[in-house]
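2.7 Reproducibility. Because tokenized structures are sensitive to small changes in the input, we list the exact sequence used for IMPACT family protein, including any N-terminal residues retained from the expression construct. No trimming or masking was applied before prediction.
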Amino acid sequence: MTEKDTYKTINTSTEAILFKDKNSKFFGYAYPITSEDDVKLHINNLKKEHHAARHWCYAYQIGTENISYRANDDGEPNNSAGMPIYGQIQSFNVTNVLIVVVRYFGGVKLGVGGLINAYKTTAQLTLESSKIIEKTINVNYLISFGYKNMNTVMRIIKEQNLNITNQKLEMDCQITIAVRKKNANQVFKTFSHLFEINIEQL
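Resulting structure tokens (single pass, no recycling of outputs):
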């Protein structure tokens, strides 16, 4: 069985999706994220935008191989908001994503079952309106070499269609490349066999 080296995520944040139930309004938002700092930033921005709302419930998942996730009910009954939202992240099989559902209470209680349905449906509609893309899981390498070996390094990068993410080309050169995981070992071997050229994983 080949090792999985792709994952699904969303490419941009979505416009708000509105779901209504018994006068309560639920606004759903999806954001691409890479860290917990991103989560705090988006939640804080939504709290400013929806300062009159009652709850800002959310769930997120970060990572491709080492997964971290969190589901937050933000004052709603236990597991009635965050987990239904997280369930949709799992259902759509996406990662590096944050879903926030902002609730305005309409005066009629929905009960736990009603809340679960409302948060789940809002998260589902939000993800359905997002553009889901597939990305490769990459390994980053730093290649260090003297200027005289520049042509050799550049030729291999071009031949193997490698993606340069950073470069410093002086007397001592350093190039950072991102390599799709399934090709990583081969690329590492190619460079490590070369004289006067050093490669290390970042």
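The chain has a mean pLDDT of 94.
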